[in-house]
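pls read this stuff:
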Amino acid sequence: SVASSSVPFSGPDSNQSWREIRGSRQTRKQDISFNRLKIADTTLSSLTQFADGLSQELSGETRRLTLAAPWANPGKVNAAAKEKAELKAQATAVKDSNGKVQQLIEDLKSAETAETALPIAQNAILSFAAFRDQAAQAIKMNPRKVEAEDVTTAEVLESSPAAAPVKAPAPSGKTVAQISAELGQISNSTKDRADEVIKLAKAREPKRDANEDVQQAYRTLQSNANAARNYKSYLDQLTSSMRGANSPEAAEQLLLKGLQTQQYVNNMLSNSRASRAILDR
C-alpha cells in the first residue's frame, strides 16, 4: 500500500539495510581511526628523524665553539679551571644549556606518541637556540679573540662527530663527470632550501615585552639564516673542488660531503619553519 511504502526500510529487508548502514558507519570510523594513527606514526617518525638531525647540529655547533673557545668546551671537565671567574660562569652556562638540549633530544627519541613528542621537539628547538646564544657569548668573551667566523663551515663539517662516519665509498662505477653532475643537482636543491631558511628569518623583531618563546624563536631564525649562508658558501667550495677531482673515488668523497650538507640544511629548514610558526602564531 501507499502508507506502507512510505515507511523506510519496511518489509523483510529492513534489518539487513540497517545492518549495512551500521556496518558502513563502523567501517568509516575504523578508516578514520586508522588514518589518524597513520598520520600520528608518520609525525612521530618525522620527529624522531628531527631529533637525529638536531643532534648533528648540536655536534657541529659544539665543535665550532670548541675550536674557537676551548675553555668553554661543554664536553670537558673543568675546561675553564684556569680562567677568570666570569669565564668559568659562562662555561657553566654553556655546559648547562648543552646538557639540556642533549636530554631533550634523548627524550624526543624515546617518545612513544606524536602527542608527547611534539612539545618536546618545540622545547628542544628553543633550548638549542639558547645554547647557540650561550656559545656565541662565550666566543665573544674569549680572551684569545678568535671570532666565530674564523672557524669555517668546512672545519665544522669535517671535524665534528656527525661528520666522522664518512668513509671511502664503494666504487659506484660512475665517472667523475657523472658524479660532478649529481653534486651539482644536490648543491642547487640544497641552496634553494638554504634560501628558504634565510627568507624565513626576514621577520619583524618581537617587541621587548614578547614572551621568551617568541624571543628565542626569532633568535633561532637569525642564527639559522647565518648558518645557511655559510652552508651555501661551503657548497660552492665543494663544487669548485669537484672540478679538480682526478678520480671517481675523490669525486665520491666530495659527493658524500654534499649529501651530508644537504641533510644539515634540511634539518635546519625544519627548525626554522617550526620557529617561524611560533613567531607567527
Remarks:
- The chain has a mean pLDDT of 76.
- Residues 14-68 form the longest helix (55 residues).
